[in-house]
Design brief:
This protein folds into two domains: about 140 residues, HAD superfamily/HAD-like (Rossmann fold, 3-Layer(aba) Sandwich); about 80 residues. The protein is built from nine helices and eight strands. α6 links the parallel β3 and β4. Keywords: Hydrolase.
Length: about 240
C-alpha cells in the first residue's frame, strides 16, 4: 500500500519498467544487425563473440561505475581491449555504423508492459513524476517515452548519457532531486526493475523505494529479497488516500 498524501514525487526507471525491451528472457536478438557490423568489417567472425565480449566488458567497466559511456565510447573502449590491433579509421567507421544500426533496430524491440498507462493515469493527479534512466544515447529515454505517449505524465526525464552519471552513483539521484525542486527525500518514491539501482541505492539518500520484480517473466531479473518492498504488476501500484 502506498499513501498518496505521504508523497510529493515518484521517480521511475525507464526501460523494463515503463517500457519493455527485447524478449521476456532479455535476449538481445533484435540487436543482431548492430552486432553484425564488426563481423562484416572483419574484426570478429561471429556476432555471438561480439555480444559475449560486450557483456564481459560491460560487467568489468560499466556495471556499478559512476560515469556513463555512450554507445560509441563503449565499443571503442571494448575494441581497444579485445582488438587493440584494429585500424583506427576502420574502428571509426564500425562505431558510426553500429550506432546507426542500433537506432534503427532498437525501437522495434520495444513494447509497453501490461497496465503501465492506467497506472500512470491513476497517479498523475496525486503526485509529480520524473524518470531517471541509465542509457548510452542521450535523450533516447525521453524520445521512447514520447513514442508511446507516456512523456505527458512526467515533469522531467534524466538520462545518464545526457548528464554523464549513472545509477547507482549518488550523483544522478541528487541531480534528479534538484530537477524536482529539492523535495524532502522521504517524500520521494523510487520504483524500477533493477534491485540495486532502483530499490537499494535510492534509500541511501533517504528516498523510499519499491522494486518492480520482473523475475517471473525475465530470466535476467533478480527476485525480490524479503526486506525489499516489491510489486510484480502495475495493477498492484495503487495510490491510497
Amino acid at each position: 500500500m502506498v499513501t498518496s498524501t505521504s508523497l510529493d514525487w515518484i521517480f521511475f526507471d525507464c526501460f523494463n519498467t515503463l517500457i519493455d525491451d527485447f524478449d521476456t528472457s532479455g535476449y538481445e536478438a533484435g540487436l543482431a544487425p548492430m552486432y553484425q557490423v564488426p563481423v562484416t568489417a572483419g574484426l570478429y567472425t561471429d556476432i555471438e563473440d561480439v555480444r559475449a565480449d560486450y557483456h564481459r566488458w560491460r560487467l568489468e567497466y560499466i556495471a556499478g561505475k559512476p560515469h556513463e559511456q555512450t554507445l560509441q565510447e563503449r565499443f571503442r573502449n571494448l575494441l581497444a581491449v579485445y582488438r587493440p590491433e584494429a585500424d583506427t579509421a576502420l574502428v571509426d567507421q564500425v562505431l558510426a555504423e553500429m550506432e546507426v544500426q542500433f537506432m534503427e533496430c532498437f525501437p522495434a524491440t520495444l513494447r509497453l508492459p501490461a497496465g503501465v498507462e492506467s497506472m500512470l493515469q491513476r497517479w498523475q493527479d496525486q503526485v509529480s513524476m520524473g524518470v531517471i534512466s541509465n542509457f548510452f544515447l542521450a535523450d533516447w529515454p525521453g524520445k521512447m517515452l514520447e513514442r508511446y505517449g507516456l512523456n505527458v505524465y512526467f515533469q522531467f526525464v534524466l538520462d545518464s548519457a545526457e548528464c554523464g552519471k549513472r545509477k547507482p552513483s549518488d550523483t544522478i539521484y541528487q541531480m534528479a532531486l534538484e530537477a524536482a525542486g529539492n523535495p524532502a527525500p522521504e517524500r520521494v518514491l523510487f520504483i524500477g526493475d533493477h534491485l540495486t539501482n532502483d530499490a537499494i541505492a535510492p534509500q541511501r539518500l533517504g528516498m523510499r523505494s519499491i522494486y518492480f520484480d520482473r523475475s517471473a517473466e525475465r530470466a535476467s531479473s533478480s527476485a525480490a529479497p524479503a526486506d525489499i518492498k516489491a510489486i510484480t504488476h502495475w495493477d498492484q501500484f495503487i495510490p491510497y488516500p
